[in-house]
Amino acid sequence: MVVQALSSQTESRLGERLSTPLRPVALEQARVFIVVAAFNEAASIADVVRDLKEQYAHVVVVDDGSTDETAELAQEAGATVLSHLINRGQGAALQTGISYVLSQAADYIVTLDVDGQYDVKDIALLLGPISEGKVHATLGCRGASEQKRVPLTVRFRRILQAIGKIGSRMGLHTHLPDAHNGLCAFSRHAATTLDLKLDRTPHSSEIVQQIVAGGLDLQEVPVRVRVSDYALRKGQRSSAALRVAINYILARFTR
Amino acid sequence: MTTFQIFVCALMGMLMVLSLGAALRGTVPKRVVAAALVLWTLGVVAAVWPWTVSGAAQALGIGRGSDLILYLTTLSLAVAVVYSYVRFRRVERQLTLLVRRLAMEAAAERSPGLRSSLPSMTPSASEPARRVESGSAPRLLT
């Protein structure tokens, strides 16, 4: 009878992989790992880790060849730290973090950026749909429905992200309003299908692309932008978005 | 012989000597040295007997010998750039895998019991021109 039920499920997918081969674990009993890639973030890493540790037991910081005390500070704040001896890029650092947490039997994985424009409470919003078994991955998006009074730097960055988004659309299969958002959560199964190769891609662009290309379901979850002090201090250089777009295009043709 | 022809012959001669030296030392593969020697010889021929280049150009329907040289040079340059770039990307990939492996090993040392799950070191795309299979999962957990 179980075999019958399984085969009908497979048939309804018609060639697609079974998107939920395992039963999702309830959030309270699940092993949730937060993965943060950091490069010379000594100024803010301790705060970020401490905020996360208040709600989540497992915080993994991947120190991407930092030349300051990022690794030590992250460790002191209570994170598990993996160190790249040399800087390889955020994409590479995230993959290292993902490989590590998979070996630690993670059920759910959340990636986020150090520039901390998120509210830690929003992570639970991202994990909700996954733990209910609806989707394999969720992407935090900063939609139009947020506060009007946003500082100029953030507003300007959005225009650049829109431009970067056009490049992402060439490789993505679904419509995504905020391609360069770093807040992303996914299941263990989705994580096992990942093999990030674009080392210098910031945020989770390649993660989203691979999950979508692999036929797994992904859902956007609106999150709040919490523009804190350290977020503004860091910011993202305008030139970075253009460089990423070019790199991405070149990499797609020269694997 | 003109000054230029003498200069070119001297230069090609020197390059031939260097190439043979590299072949003897074994630093460069024999086939590459052979190709290089052919190239230097053609250089001498082109300088000492310029009409051969014109003849070759005429045969190919190009017209002028110098045009032929120009096209060959441009093509070679383009190929060399693309080849170098692809090789560069491959090295970068291997470097990332190496750094990742070291990071995981360091973590394993801190908390034993991790060793069995170290990721594979082999990149999944080993040919420069081959496209990566979509959705190929690495051997993360053994």
Structure characteristics:
heterodimer, A: 255 residues, alpha/beta, 7-stranded mixed sheet, globular, disordered N terminus, B: 142 residues, mainly alpha, 4 helices, 70% helix, 0% strand, elongated
Molecular structure report:
The complex is a heterodimer of chains A (255) and B (142). Chain A has 255 residues and is an alpha/beta fold. Chain A is built from ten helices and seven strands. Chain A has helices at residues 2-13, 45-55, 70-76, 90-103, 121-131, 152-169, 188-192, 205-213, 229-234, 238-253, and strands spanning 32-38, 58-64, 80-84, 108-112, 137-141, 184-187, 218-222. In chain A, strands 3-2-1-4-6-5-7 form a seven-stranded mixed β-sheet, with helices on both faces. In chain A, helix 2 links the parallel strand 1 and strand 2. In chain A, helix 6 runs parallel beside helix 10. In chain A, 45% of the residues are buried. Chain B has 142 residues and is mainly alpha-helical. Chains A and B meet through strand 3 and helix 4 of A and helix 4 of B.
